[in-house]
Specification:
alpha/beta; Maf protein; 6 helices; 28% helix
């Protein structure tokens, strides 16, 4: 088994027998499916599809399916790093579907909190995926933190796992500063409170926009997820023979 993290590289490997031998009869896998995106997060699907398409992986809906679409169960994410959790998700859906699988794990790392919420970002307030509660809790915890100490970064680990045992992980980060109140309606999660260092100024002054105020193309160009998946794209293309 080969594992390649961040700057590691390997050449294309032969597909082992059974890429199209579906691992679970209860799954609904389209016959044309070539790769599975391991996510049940509908907010993330469109973003990931756009990033992969811009990287040369412009597959049809039938060729690129999600674990939610095929009915694959969500595994327990008990890793202690973004990379470990991304691999857990990719391994699970690869084993279930018999297809190459791509997954990501991402979150917000706040400097003054020692990197928290980190891998607990999606359930920081206790309930998984409650964006509003997570935002309110984090802003409350940072209420007395001065602007010059509000640095943070979104971190993403993107993983590829194939039925023949190949595993690749790439990392991406988008650094910025946290606002004291949410702004913007695009994106999801903590996007409304992080002003990316790379974001362009707004047209009505010198105020820089939050990630939730950027349009999707702008965000994908600088985001942690965009950077991680663009780095992983050559490996995905090699596996698919694209």
């Amino acid at each position: 088994m080969s594992r390649h993290y961040r700057d590691g590289a390997s050449g294309p490997e032969e597909a082992g027998g059974g890429w199209h031998d579906r691992g679970m009869s209860s799954l609904t896998v389209p016959p044309a499916a070539r790769i599975v995106l391991a996510t049940h997060n509908t907010k993330k699907v469109g973003e990931l599809r756009a990033i992969l398409a811009a990287s040369g992986l412009d597959l049809s809906d039938g060729e690129l399916v999600t674990s939610g679409e095929i009915g694959a169960p969500e595994p327990v994410e008990d890793g202690v790093t973004f990379a470990e959790n991304a691999l857990i998700k990719a391994r699970a859906v690869c084993a279930a579907s018999g297809l190459p699988a791509v997954a990501d794990d991402s979150g917000l790392a706040v400097d003054v909190l020692g990197g928290a919420p980190g891998i607990f970002s999606a359930r920081w307030a206790g309930k998984h995926g409650d964006d509003l509660a997570n935002l309110e809790l984090l802003l409350g915890q940072l209420g007395d933190v001065r602007p010059e100490h509000r640095q943070a970064g979104f971190v993403c680990a993107a993983a590829l796992v194939t039925p023949d045992g190949r595993e690749e992980v790439r990392l991406g980060e988008m650094r910025g500063v946290l606002e004291t109140a949410p702004r913007g309606t695009n994106g999801f999660g903590y996007d409304p409170i992080l002003v990316p260092d790379e974001a362009a100024q707004a047209g009505d002054g010198d105020r820089r926009r939050t990630a939730a105020e950027l349009d999707p193309a702008e965000k994908n160009a600088i985001s942690h997820r965009g950077k991680a998946f663009r780095a992983l794209a050559p490996a995905i293309l090699a596996v698919l023979g694209a």
